[in-house]
Specification:
elongated; 24 strands; single chain; lipid transporter activity; 6-stranded mixed β-sheet; 15% strand; 32 helices; alpha/beta; 8-stranded mixed β-sheet; Alpha-Beta Plaits; nucleotide-binding
Length: 942
């Protein structure tokens, strides 16, 4: 027996959790296949990395050079010897360098065609004319500003030397006394300076020189020996009145700093601030775009040291004379051991693959939610007492657990097979990122599921989202991230798209793993969190997670629960109005319609009285219930239910009969919460269906017209789930399930433990009835429960329903008159949205079946004799059927006595041959047809 109290929140949550775990167990191999997808992708990345290592990382070009040297033992065998002396310049980078070579310091200068000249956007006209670009003789410009102009101009005269000489026997000190410049970007280290190793020109910058004069010299020892030519370039120092002017000219001269795209680059600038003879204070301004500005990679070296030395020397010479000098002889790295190329290609392409892996859960979860919606499983669970709270909590926790196991397996797989993407980055950061994102993803799925009603459509859209996000992330987002000129603000805006925020986080992991592996240190740690873009990604994900979750819950409340869109604005402490209220005043037209229906009028008056009483024994009371569907495509509004008033006490089975389209389904849908009444209300166990539907569901059972079952759950598991929702526990639950299975003939032969998907149509129907009756609900709605059953199963099911109605109010719809007569205590015939008559079967047949049906079969020549016989017995008889000697007549009961009919037939037999004859009372089917025709004719007339 069910507990008198409805199931608690925890009981209903436990029921859904057990059902979900059972469902998950049934789909074990599907889950295994799902988890194997990230494993296969990780293996694929490892294979790609192995091939890349073989062909690139470990190739001869990318490791220290080796040569075969003849051995000293005279056997003719050579010994492979490796070292920098056997290497090409490209191979030398990977060799051990016990004593790194010293490189002369270089000043970063613009290319000749980019150096500052007179331009439209510069207010100052002291630059050289643009003609110098044609000859390649444009000077290298440095701007100077500060509080004291005379001091600034004095220092400017000392920045660049006026002559140049080379002492080949002691090259580095000679070069240190001069200013060498390069247009080549610096590298990540100083083991090999690109300004010297490349084919680009090295410039000797002097205050006065012969334009483009060259001086050859050689530098270094084999294999790092370079023959270079020093080309003279003039150094130009210009005074500016403020740092604002300096900033403006540097920015506008940058290649993308002005709308016309004209390049007018300044080498550097010095803001001397309050520098005087007692105080040296200077700010150095330079173009930082020469370093790596991708946003997350370690920056290349920036050539600032030489700029510092130039202004320092200028100040010393100003203070102590031209002979004073601070030598800056060379730049040198620390010693290094032999290295190898360690390009982690798996980390570089990882964001695309791992975006697909993580997003793969999106269509899986979405299909599950839309399947429940498509098969109406969510609503049938709700009708049996599963509230929104337990459903959301368990469903969210269930999908979150699956998602966490999924990405934990991904991290374990990736780490176990050696992917640096997982091994180098801090596991706690990775776990936090994946945890936050799958929460956002689940919230988005709940939100998006409200859009779709078909699984196929949702699946196609979800996979387009999955693969589209990965490809757009690779070819659009990553391209823009690595473009230093693209505004960072727009990157943040793009990351508001959830697929891009996932890709950006994975991109950050990949870059840190790549550079960490390349340089032999760890990847991303918490100390790098704010230096990368992960902080903004985390903020975006967290905010969108809560926004999506709240929006999903709101839409669900409004759509599935039928709540008012502004329900959250209502005062939760305000008491709801009394449910017992006087009925609305009926219109005169309604009284006119019911004047000829005393049974319907009596039922309406009964309902009015019940609505005034503080309590009632009637389980179901409908008071002037109406449903109007709005007109569409130019059609007028459709009145589906026209002011229905009905009272059904506990222990009664009320049958609703009516032709298709009469409004029975609309009535049932309003009573079960699928539709909101246009006006009027209904009370179930004293609870208003308009305001307290969630509480109504706890005492309700429903057998819908179509079987709403999980294909992979067994009949027993269905009943265990719904039994728990009805607060059945322990032995009571086990006993109730077994009794239900036995009552509908699903217990023996292992049928109870077969998946419902393998049931026949009749077996599914019987299971649906058993579900609606388990736990002895107070109110049960049975919509054509015996459809598709064989006669034996139908009779058995009738017995089950008849037994169940002892303490339950049942509303049953059917097209079987036999079923209605056997099960229903009272019947109501519903035509065109209104109740035409109400009463028990016997009363209806007596009230609307006022005639007998007489049938007689004779030969054709005696048909007139039969007609005369009937006229003698009943003058007002009406012929209703005639074919091949068989005739049927309706005989008004008030004109006929059965004994007189028998006497007349016996007398007729002596005059002509009678093959067959019969006299039948009116059936319920006759009553139904007559009432339906009368009701339809009246409605058409009215």
């Amino acid at each position: 027996m069910a507990d008198s109290a409805p199931a608690s929140f925890s009981t209903r949550a436990n029921a859904l959790l057990r059902k979900n775990l059972t469902y998950q167990k049934r789909n074990l191999w599907s889950n295994v296949r799902l988890i194997m997808i990230p494993f296969y992708l990780c293996v694929l990345l490892v294979v790609v990395q192995v091939l890349f290592d073989t062909q690139v990382n470990n190739s001869d070009e990318n490791r220290c050079g080796c040569q075969c040297i003849n051995g000293t033992n005279g056997d003719g065998k050579c010994v492979e010897t490796c070292g920098i002396e056997y290497s090409t310049p490209e191979q030398a980078f990977f060799c051990s360098i016990p004593s790194p070579p010293p490189w002369p310091p270089l000043l970063q200068i613009p290319r000749p065609e980019s150096r500052a000249v007179i331009s439209d956007f510069s207010r100052n006209k002291d630059f050289p004319t643009e003609s110098c670009r044609r000859t390649g003789s444009c000077p290298v410009t440095i701007l100077v500003t500060g509080d004291k102009q005379p001091l600034g101009k004095a220092l400017s005269a000392n920045i660049f030397p006026t002559s140049f000489s080379v002492n080949s026997s002691d090259l580095l000190p000679t070069l240190a006394n001069n200013v060498l410049g390069t247009t080549a970007d610096a590298d990540f280290t100083n083991y090999l300076d690109p300004g010297i190793a490349s084919n680009l020109t090295i410039y000797n910058i002097q205050s006065e020189c012969i334009p483009n004069a060259t001086l050859p010299f050689s530098f270094g020892q084999p294999p790092l020996q370079f023959k270079k030519e020093l080309t003279c370039a003039k150094g130009l120092n210009l005074w500016r009145n403020s740092s604002i002017e300096v900033n403006d000219e540097i920015f506008k001269g940058y290649r993308k700093g002005n709308p016309e795209g004209k390049i007018n680059e300044i080498t550097a600038a010095y803001d001397l601030l309050n520098t005087d003879r007692n105080n040296f204070n200077v700010h150095i301004l330079y173009n930082s775009t020469y370093k790596d500005e991708s946003g997350n990679r370690p920056a290349k070296l920036v050539r600032v040291a030489r700029s510092v030395n130039l202004v320092s020397n200028a100040y010393l010479q100003f203070m102590h004379g031209p002979g004073t000098r601070m030598l800056f002889e060379y730049i040198k790295e620390v010693p290094k051991s032999e290295t190898s190329l360690r390009l982690d290609i798996a980390s570089l392409i990882g964001p695309l693959f791992f975006t697909w892996v993580i997003l793969l859960l999106f269509p899986v979860i979405l299909s599950s939610l839309v399947y429940e919606k498509q098969e109406r499983l969510r609503i049938i669970m709700k009708m049996h007492g599963l509230g929104d709270g337990p459903y959301w909590m368990i469903s969210y926790a269930y999908f979150l657990t699956i998602s966490m196991l999924y990405f934990i397996c991904l991290m374990i797989f990736g780490s176990a097979i050696g992917l640096k993407f997982f091994r180098l980055n801090d596991y706690s950061i990775q776990f936090t990122f994946y945890f936050l994102y799958v929460n956002l993803q689940i919230s988005l799925v709940f939100l998006v599921s409200s859009i779709f009603s078909k699984v196929k459509t949702s699946t196609v859209a979800a996979y387009i989202y999955v693969f589209g996000s990965g490809l757009l992330g690779l070819f659009l987002l990553q391209f823009l991230i690595e473009d230093s000129s693209f505004p960072r603000g727009w990157i943040v805006v793009m990351e508001l798209y959830p697929g891009f925020s996932l890709y950006r986080g994975l991109y950050e992991f990949s870059q840190f793993a790549f550079m960490g592996n390349l340089r032999g240190h760890d990847g991303m740690k918490w100390k790098d969190f704010s230096d990368s873009a992960m902080d903004e990604v985390f903020y975006i994900i967290i905010v969108e997670w809560f926004v999506a979750l709240i929006a999903a819950y709101y839409i669900d409340k409004v759509s599935s629960s039928g709540k008012d869109p502004l329900f959250f604005l209502k005062n939760p402490f305000k008491k709801s109005p009394s449910l017992r209220r006087p009925s609305l005043q009926r219109q005169g037209s309604k009284v006119f319609v019911e004047m000829d229906k005393p049974d319907v009028t009596q039922e309406r008056e009964k309902v009015e009285q019940l609505m005034l009483e503080p309590s009632t024994s009637h389980a179901i009371v409908c008071d002037d219930l109406k449903k109007v569907y709005p007109g569409r495509d130019g059609n007028p509004p459709k009145m589906a239910v026209r002011g229905l008033s009905l009272a059904v006490p506990s222990g009664e089975c009320f049958g609703m009969l009516g032709p298709n389209g009469a409004g029975k389904t609309s009535f049932i849908n309003m009573m079960t919460g699928l539709l909101k009444p246009t006006s009027g209300t209904g009370l179930v166990q004293g609870l208003d269906i308009c305001n307290d539907m969630d509480r109504v569901y706890t005492s309700m059972g429903v057998c819908p017209q179509h079987d709403l079952l999980w294909e992979t759950l067994t009949g027993r598991e269905h009943l265990l789930f719904y039994g728990r929702l009805k607060n059945l526990k322990g032995s009571d639950l086990t006993q109730a399930v077994e009794e239900s299975l036995k009552s509908v003939n699903l217990f023996h032969g292992g049928v109870a433990d077969k998946p419902a998907g393998k049931y026949s149509g009749g077996m599914k129907r019987r299971l649906s009835v058993a579900i609606s009756l388990i736990g002895n609900p107070k109110v049960v709605y049975l919509d054509e429960p015996s459809t598709g059953l064989d006669p034996a199963s139908r009779k058995n099911l009738w017995t089950v329903i008849k037994r169940a109605k002892q303490h339950t109010a049942i509303i049953l719809t059917t097209h079987s008159m036999e079923e209605a007569e056997y099960l229903c205590d009272r019947l109501g015939i519903f035509v065109d949205g209104s109740l035409q008559c109400i009463g028990n079967p016997k009363e209806l047949k007596g009230r609307y079946g006022g005639s007998y049906v007489f049938t007689m079969t004779t030969s054709s020549e005696h048909e007139r004799n039969v007609e005369k016989l009937i006229q003698d017995v009943s003058p007002n008889a009406k012929k209703i059927y005639h074919i091949a000697g068989t005739q049927k007549f309706e005989l008004p009961k008030e004109e006929v006595r059965i004994s007189e009919v028998f006497q007349a037939v016996e007398k007729a037999k002596s005059n002509f041959t009678v093959f067959a004859w019969g006299l039948a009372d009116t059936t319920l089917e006759d009553v139904f047809i007559k009432v339906a025709r009368t009701g339809q004719a009246f409605n058409v007339f009215s």
